[in-house]
Write a structure and sequence with these properties.
mainly alpha; two-stranded antiparallel ribbon; 17 helices; 2 strands
Length: 368
Amino acid sequence: MRNRYLDLLRALAIVRVVVYHVTGWASLTLLFPAMSVMFALAGSLMAASLHRSGAPAVGRRLRRLLPSLWALAAIFVPAMLLTGLPLTPKVLLWLFPVADPPANYWGALALSPIWYLRDYLWFVLASPVALWLFRRFPLPTLLAPYCLLLTIELGIYPNPHGILREFGLYFGAWLLGFAHQAGMLRRLANRVLIPIALVLAAAGGAWILAHPGPRGYDLNDIPLGNALWSAAFILVALGRAPATAAWVDRNALFGRAVTVLNRRALTVYLWHMAFVVALTPLVDVVGWSHQDPLGLAIRVVLVFVLVGVVTALVGWVEDVAAQRPPELIPGGRRPQVPAARRHAEARSGDDRPAVPDQQDRGSGVSVR
């Protein structure tokens, strides 16, 4: 049985990401560090899949991850090629983004969320070895990404490769997901978990206050503060996660919304930034400034409406990737399936990718 509390966390993260991208409110990154939370949830699911089926879980995860990217690329890559993007072998990175795939002047911003798939891909590939190490040396393995990030931020390891910085920033959250799946966080007594969380939050908060970024206290500009603050949040959010949250489905509409956001997480994440960018000129045309609550609310609603339309058009790709019957709007009543098929679906696991937000390395515009 699915834990609807975890589904709720993922759904809230998706909504928070979209609202943040429209409003630019830095306080949202502190209130809900969605990126790290989603990597922690994904790490927990990845650990469960590896425990259940071993190395083949990597292939299944990639199978669920990449088709939504290919659907996006099928539309945007030809459009970029027609508007100035050089046709080079690097374009093939849109099929398997182990590095940032190329984009032209407008695509670099509209498609900036691709960073997430790049990091997710590397974390999935690293997970079999990481889980082996975690099971044998849990604490050193868990601390390693944070130590790596600390050496980078203190200048001990200057100019690291981009993906190493990402491992330092987010792989710790992924490993906390391992700890959640293993039940380690749940077994921590309050007298241990709460002080650890408070120390991490205090250290992260102190670093954030001492190292404000160009947008003030936006976590996306403060990697070490982000990692520490997020770790504290994850410890509490997952360490004290309820076994279930049946109340989520007491209201049918709310429960359906949570289901849709979970089943269409990748589609919403990959497409929403293009609509945020497309609607930005309305700020000047209509006069909707970032200080105008009504204008911001209208833009948020418009982005969700447009994302809803494109999700209805291409969201079924996520169903096909997960080997589910395609649905226009997920969460409706499904016909009974044979027991053998139910068993096969249970073995494959429900390990859809989680969604988040991040910063566009090339333009400096926040997309986290």
